[in-house]
Amino acid sequence: MTELQKGCRDKLDKYIDTAKVFTVSLKISGPAVYDFSCFGVDSDNKLSDERYMIFYNQTSSPEGAIIYTNSGEFSLDLSKLPYSINRLVFTASIDGSGNMGEIASHTVTISQDNNAALSMSLSGQDFHSERAVISIEIYHKDTSWRIAAVANGFNGGLGDLLKFYGGTALDDTPETTHVNQAPEPENIPNIPVVTKRVELKKGVKVSLDKKIASKGEIIINLNWKHAASTSGLFSIRKVDKSKSIDLDIGCLYELSDGKRGSIQALGNKFGSLNNAPYISLDKDDRTGDAPEGENLRVNTAKISQIRRILVYTFIYEGVNNWQEADGVITIKCPGTPEVIIKLDEYDTNKIMCALAMLENVNNETFSVEKIIRFFDGHISLDNAFNWGLKWVHGTKSLQVPAI
After folding, report:
1. Which of 181, 213, 246, 293 is most solvent-facing, going by the fewest CB within 10 Å?
2. Between the CA atoms of 365, 369, 374 and 376, what dihedral angle is there, to the nearest 10 degrees?
3. pLDDT tens for residues 293-351?
């Protein structure tokens, strides 16, 4: 393994095969909490496409060239990068108080096929009051990829670092002025207001807040609009009640012990929030008239017990008209931006749609990926995602469970 010295530049293909997948791992030992990110910049050295800012809350670039696989670890496939991205900047920043001059060590390791090829080692003596640093850069010059051991810092933290590349810190939100604000009603819990929303594109992953275990619940809400000015969960225009649609939300789940199953109103599989599988469906809205729709709830305190969740919807009764439904799934977790997934593809020949996949990341959070794939029914959906469940004909109970 070759040790890089601060400030040096070299051709990367002297040490690894840049046409193959390799890993960049950043680690810091110190008294603070440290965040790591990689973002791709264009030929003007600007972050012109924020989809290429990869970190714990956005874990993959659109084509999968950059993937945040672990805390401070990135998997790279340079052959997939678009021509517009010619430099990857790897950064470390402090979440909270402190500065880089207080760290014991900062290491960067480049590995391929489980073999470490390059490394850079720094300590607090290499920094002073910086709160964010550019660790290394991987960039394209002439016909080859090169590496630069930058190790330069920004006293203003990640916000100043991003501004240097023309970006904006995700926490930079305008102040809100309240005019003639009424007193808060009594007995109403003080729930944090989330002012940001993240709309996912198909195939893109983001992660929920990394401190998710303390959040209580994740709410997965599915709503659709009526063409006739009514509202509810994925409603279609209603001529009369006998022709109204009954569209259900459900999920397949896999627990950490390998147990798999489903949550849905059909078959009365409403799950449990406090016992396995720690996922529940709050009710079955038969008409689409409930303004809050139907919701899957996930117990975040049990995140270590949940490996993955595949969220789907299916038409139990009614006409297959997905486009008119204009469906939207909203994933809500206190303190985290709402994740919005729009059903913006349509297949009128299918009755079921896979919407999103939630996957456990280091027992700290869930990544969320937009799917949008249509199927003939439960069995074809199961086969497509290799869940391996046995399906039988099911019915709905006349009783609706208590919320």
Report:
1. 181
2. -30
3. 678 999 988 999 999 999 998 876 555 556 666 678 889 887 677 888 888 777 667 88
Residue 249 contacts residue 222 (beta carbons within 8 Å): yes
Burial class of 242 by CB neighbour count within 10 A (0 to 12, 13 to 18, 19+): exposed
Classify the C-alpha dihedral 300-303-306-310 as positive or negative. Answer: positive
pTM above 0.70, yes or no: no
- Give the residue, 82 or 188, on which the prediction is more confident: 82
What's the chain's average pLDDT?
Answer: 79
What share of the chain in percent tops pLDDT 70? 76
- Report the C-alpha gap between 275 and 281 in whole angstroms: 13
Dmax (CA) of the chain: 75
The residue to which tokens 């010619």 are assigned: 86
Q: For residue 110, give both structure tokens.
A: 């480049």
Neighbours of 317 (CB within 10 A): 12
HSE, CB side, 13 Å, CA atoms: give it for residue 182: 3
The domain limits of the chain are 2-164, 197-384
Domain 197-384 belongs to what architecture? Sandwich (2.60)
CA distances from 355 to 12, 218, 272, 336 (A): 40, 16, 22, 20
- Which tokens go with 201? 């594109």
Q: How far apart are CA 24 and CA 75, in angstroms?
A: 7
User: What local confidence, expressed as pLDDT, does residue 333 receive?
Assistant: 83
Length of the chain measured in residues: 403
